[in-house]
Amino acid sequence: MNTLAPPATWSDKRYLWLLSPAIPLIALLSLVGFQQTGHTLLLWTLPLVVHALIPVLDWLFGEDFSNPPESAVAELDRDFFYRALLWLFIPFQLAGTVFGAWLVATQDLAWYQLAGLIMSVGGFNGIGIATAHELGHKKESLDRWLAKLTLAPSAYGHFYVEHNRGHHKRVATPEDPASSRLGEGFWRFLPRTVIGSLRSAWELEAERLGRQGKSVWSLSNDNLQSWAMTLVLFGALVAWLGPVVLPFLILQALYGASLLEVVNYVEHYGLLRQKMPDGRYQRCEPEHSWNSNHIVGNILLYHLQRHSDHHAHPTRRYQALRHFEDAPQLPSGYALMITVAYCPPLWFALMNRRVVQHYGGDVSRANIHPARRAEMMARHGKPTTKR
Amino acid sequence: MSLEQAKAHAHDTWQCGSCSFVYDEAQGWPSEGIAPGTPWAQVPEDWRCPDCSSSKDDFVKT
Questions:
Q1: Nearest neighbour of B20 by CB, restricted to A165, A284, A312
Q2: Residue A325: phi, psi to the nearest 5?
Q3: Among A289, A296, A331, residue whose Cα is nearest residue A313
Q4: ipTM above 0.85, yes or no
Q5: Pick from A139, A278, A311: which is nearest to B53 by CB?
Q6: Contact B54 A311 (CB under 8 A)
Q7: Residue B17 and residue A285: Cβ atoms within 8 Å?
Q8: Which of A358, A299, A376, A296 is closest to A332 using CA atoms?
Q9: Chain B partners of A139 at a C-beta cutoff of 8 Å?
């Protein structure tokens, strides 16, 4: 039984949501600031905001447990304001990508300046995947088209296919490339999820188009449509600014995609849907996702950290997502957790015992990395009574 | 509804808008007590997609 926080505590975050599209705007203004002043630190604004400032702000502003009352959900869903805020991210994101490429082509950048620029542009394009994620779950065809457009700069358009029809179906099972396993470090998870998700997206479209009697190479293939947007964007920038921008575009895309995958890593670490007698997995419930109510991170990521409600109700809009009292909670928001995930020993020290606690000390109920199963069972297995 | 109309509607299929799971009225979903032949309208309102948990509202007739 999953219990909701009392509706009486609901605080309308309406205008705080304006901060979500502010991320690429702040990064864009910082890049313009660098071009005007030459201060290198301005190229590093976004990485510093993500990995240092937001964790501090998460700690300072703390958690928000409030839920909208069910009577307010229909109105929240209809309110155009929230939809427009998702769209607003996109022009800033595209402008920032174009301006970043222009800086590479026109400024004489040192390696440490280029590295900051790659992490800034890749950073907001990676964070843009949260925007694409929200848009890609919507029924409206415009929103779904915009989801593909938002994924274009990070060259990760197949996420549009794989996330809804692959990840949401297989989440918190060993079959899901995008669900991390207990004892699996991020650097081991990264190639598994990148390759597995790409393969899954291709197979899902091949299957769908096959049912319609079409070739997988059809123009109706959503993967090909999404990747074509990347080709058009990168091709136009190379045609305008020269081939010198291509390595920059590729590196920022790789970094942006890795940001998405490190968030994936955090969201379901070690959690497992149990198999039922008929061989199917139980439905995805709030207990199968890690959550955080840290308000700063939630505002910047369109409530992505209220992940249990998202998986239990995938089409519920971001402004209406709820906190569940008994859903697994992360010790901090995603910004700090992804930073910790880059260092597997630290991650294991912080999270393994939380997974074990979640399963009441019986680690056999967790999604365990096969290569470390024996070790995990020996260390955290269900205690046996000794005589 | 006439008998012909009822027969015409007997085998509708409904697809999850999120993950593409298909509910076939002819087959029902017996493991959860939804007998073969149960029309979509009689599937409980709180029933959710067995694959991805989307609510009944998210299904579309195929």
A1: A165
A2: -55, -40
A3: A289
A4: no
A5: A311
A6: no
A7: no
A8: A296
A9: 17
**Chain B hits for A164, Cβ within 8 Å:** 18-19, 52
Is A61 buried (19+), middle (13-18) or exposed (0-12) by CB count in 10 A? middle
* CB within 8 Å: A283 and B48: yes
Q: How far B2 CA sits from the closest chain A CA (Å)?
A: 32
Which residues on B lie below 8 Å from A165 (Cβ)? 18-20
A-to-B residue pairs, Cβ atoms closer than 8 angstroms:
48
Which has the closest alpha carbon to A121: A134, A141, A103, A138? Answer: A103
Is B25 within 8 Å of B10 (Cβ atoms)?
A: yes
Per-residue burial over A97-112, b if 16 or more Cβ lie within 10 Å, else e, is bbbbbbbbbeeebeee
Q: Can you say whether residue A22 is alpha, beta or left, with left for phi > 0 and alpha for psi between -120 and 50 degrees?
A: alpha
Output the tens digit of pLDDT for each of chain A's 387 residues. 455 554 445 667 889 999 989 999 999 999 999 999 999 999 999 999 999 999 999 999 999 999 998 888 888 889 999 999 999 999 999 999 999 999 999 999 999 999 999 999 999 999 998 999 999 998 889 999 999 999 999 999 999 999 999 999 999 999 999 999 999 999 999 999 999 999 999 999 999 999 899 999 999 999 999 999 999 999 999 999 999 999 999 999 999 999 999 999 999 999 999 999 888 999 999 999 999 999 999 999 999 999 999 998 888 899 999 999 889 999 999 999 999 999 999 999 999 999 999 999 999 999 999 999 999 999 887 654 443
Give pTM, 2 decimals: 0.90
Amino acid, res. A124: F
Question: Using CB atoms and an 8 Å cut-off, which of residues 1-40 of chain B contact chain A?
Answer: 17-21, 31
Are B52 and A314 a contacting pair, CB within 8 Å? yes
- Is B48–A165 a contact, with Cβ atoms under 8 angstroms apart? no
Break chain A down into helix, strand, coil percent, rounded to 5: 65, 5, 30
